[in-house]
Specification:
Chain lengths: 232, 232
DNA sequence: GCAAAAGTGTTAAAGCTACACCCATGT
DNA sequence: ACATGGGTGTAGCTTTAACACTTTTGC
């Protein structure tokens, strides 16, 4: 086998599975296509990788175009390369998962792209193999959030434990005992008390925490065990 | 953003991180290149994706060419797409992890490709970003084997618990209490007693088990907790 | 004072670790 | 019979799950 023998070049795209959380349910940012092919149908946000651009940079460029946000938490999910996945021309798509704070995005930009936040439970059928991408992204989010502190990416910088609790219930689509959850989270020592309280609450105001960035960096590679087994 | 706007086509390759286990240590099947570029240096086995071939099929084709084996356990790891990762021409590489039974491969074929099994601990420096690929593959193997029953792919169909135990010690590069390990494995009910014993042993012959395929399929998505925390 | 949400405590069961002991086999 | 490796048992500790209770706040 020699290198550069049959240099068949292929189209390479990235598609982004963009998760958000509005305090109640987990949402996806989806695009209603006003361009061919599959005009009028729903799809993930995507685009082609440029000649002089790393894969992840491509995904971040596309995310920036859509949301106006930089420094988004992005993780490569998997590449989808079935020969006939795109009917127009063979295209390899590198799928990226993105977690963003739903309140931060640029609304005009999102509207301009014909994009909408849709609850996972109301997800319409998407074009091509995008449904598979979403399924996998959700599976991975569940997998990862059970063991690593990534849920925070979906929340504001300052957040309460009840908020985090609701997020986890949304991610796993099931009830979690709030008291055990709280103790488990606090036992990681990953949260810093900001001294502030959630003034929005009509009842007892919850303590607002912030992620301890130093410990976060140290512990990122250690397992959590947030979920009662079995998770999946 | 309209589809098919700037159709820049790129080279797409697959590289395979091939793990094997010889009963003592975890090994990689590496190629000493007798072709350009980087002739004489070590690399992973790889090749370009063909026009009419799914990504995973490409990896399997390459694995078949090298080892003569079909039905190999293969898992897509990640795509590597840095602009300058390949100095000759920009190439996206989709990395695949493969777990094979080291005794099954076709020796002639491996020799013909100038490939050698090398213990992870003696791994030479590899070309391009192949070192990164190996690091990630190992991390993923550790991650996954702690929670899912995939170690079996590296063993013969019938294997003993002591064999499995040695495999796990090799994967995690640390001692594991053999008695606790044994109990943990058996408690999953994933192993079927074949009624046979390991006749090779010079001392007490170990019971040979086989993976219970039905339970395997059912349980594949459930977490194991094989390793004492923290694993990583 | 009451309802609702937040925070803290308790207890029994389960799981894990670190051991000790016995069994089978070839020399 | 003994050295070696394989199989099973157990005590003490830690973690978990499933609960109850108290505190804060707005009305």
């Amino acid at each position: 086998m020699t290198h550069y023998e049959h240099p068949t070049r292929l189209l390479v795209a990235t598609d982004c599975i963009i998760f958000g959380f509005d305090g109640e349910s987990l949402k996806l940012l989806l695009v209603k296509r006003n361009f061919a092919p599959e005009r009028g149908k729903w799809s993930l946000m995507g685009g082609f990788v440029h000649e002089n651009e790393d894969l992840e940079d491509g995904a971040k460029r596309i995310l920036y175009e859509l949301t106006g946000l930089e420094n988004i938490y992005v993780e490569q999910l998997k590449s989808f390369g079935e020969v006939k996945r795109d009917p127009v021309e063979r295209t390899i798509s590198v799928a990226f998962s993105a977690l963003i704070n739903i309140h931060d995005h640029d609304e005009d930009s999102v509207k301009a792209h014909n994009a909408v936040w849709i609850s996972l439970k109301d997800k319409p059928k998407l074009i091509f193999d995008h449904d598979k991408m979403v399924d996998l992204a959700l599976e991975q989010l569940r997998y990862k959030a059970a063991l690593h502190p990534i849920g925070f990416e979906l929340l504001p910088e300052k957040f309460s434990i009840p908020q985090l609790h609701k997020l986890y219930e949304a991610i796993y689509d099931r009830e979690l005992d709030r008291r055990n959850f709280s103790r488990k989270i606090l036992s990681t020592k990953l949260l810093m008390d900001t001294g502030e309280k959630n003034e929005q609450s009509a009842t007892k105001k919850a303590i607002l925490y912030r992620l301890d960035k130093e410990r976060y960096a140290d512990k990122f590679h250690s397992f959590w065990h947030f979920m009662p087994d079995p998770v999946m």
